[in-house]
Amino acid sequence: MLGGGRSSEREVSLASSASVREGLIAAGHEPIAIDIGRDGVWRRDGVPIALTPGQGLDGVDVVFPVLHGPFGEDGTVQGLLECLDVPYVGAGVLASAVCMDKVMFKELMAHAGLPQVDYRAVRAEELVSDPTGVLARLEGLGLPVFVKPARLGSSVGIVRVRAAEELLGALQTAFEHDGLAIVEAAARGLEVECSVIGNGEPIASEPGEIVLAAGETGWYDYEAKYTPGGMQLQVPARVPPWVRERIQEIAIEAFQRSGCSGLARVDFFIEGERVLLNELNTMPGFTATSVFASLFEASGVPYAELLDRLVQLAFERHTAAARHRH
Ligand SMILES: Nc1ncnc2c1ncn2[C@@H]1O[C@H](COP(=O)(O)OP(=O)(O)O)[C@@H](O)[C@H]1O
Ligand SMILES: [Mg+2]
Predict the structure, then answer these.
(1) What is the residue with the minimal CA distance to atom 1 of ligand 1?
(2) Looking at the CA of 144, which ligand is closest?
(3) Which of 107, 125, 130, 295 is deepest in the core (most CB within 10 A)?
(4) Dihedral of CA 128/134/136/141: which sign?
């Protein structure tokens, strides 16, 4: 198990990996914890480990990278694991990278014809060279808009902008985290999430609804995500059966179109009966009470079994890939 990591989601990863560890033990596995420090060093029991390409990772059978955000969920660690030639849980290099990048992901999903909010990408250089042009390009989105760093998570660096004069400041906040930002038209209505597991034939969980303590005027910011009581998961989501089905269908299509494997949590906005795809997380928060695990629990797959299935899927994918000729 890999936990911690260099990103601002380090603490979230540590909570996830502590739960995953317990769940794996309950499923009969013998997890070994490797911590990736803020400094990027991989340590086992506090001692830096040596890695040799082609020779696996410290003798383990399978790696569970319980890492969120940049340097963990974005294909970088997955690339290293490929070089080590060790089976690992979750998405491969390309799917991890695509799903981490909100602009790339949206472009790919738009290409597949999946419904999303209207959006624009903005590069830091553009804002410096032509701020008026950038602001003009954003006008069509109306207000409010959500301004986000393209490659981050846990709502870090995201600003909800209600007035045009706040736009520049919000973009600058996003650029503190990433050279690329995405500005999105605001969706109204419910936020619903759906978990997916599998490789070639993925299955979707019962969708669940995020009910915020702050009510309808709030949004799912860092505080709502990580303050106890900040949100409640309502399963099943309060949507008609055909909307529920559409959510599951789009969740699976997004999973397949982005080339995911293992697991994902696919997030939506539901405006009346309109289902809008928001994002796909290849390594969602993973404590036993996380949305990802709770949705499968509600769908009849308990935590330890879920982890065990993910381990099997990792072996399956590695074996299938090993059969290919390069
Ligand atoms: N276009 C949007 N319309 C309405 N709310 C949004 C929009 N984009 C983001 N939000 C709010 O911000 C939260 C975080 O945005 P999201 O894109 O999911 O980023 P993260 O990867 O940090 O979770 C969402 O869960 C939602 O509450
Ligand atoms: Mg999100």
Answers:
(1) 186
(2) 1
(3) 295
(4) negative
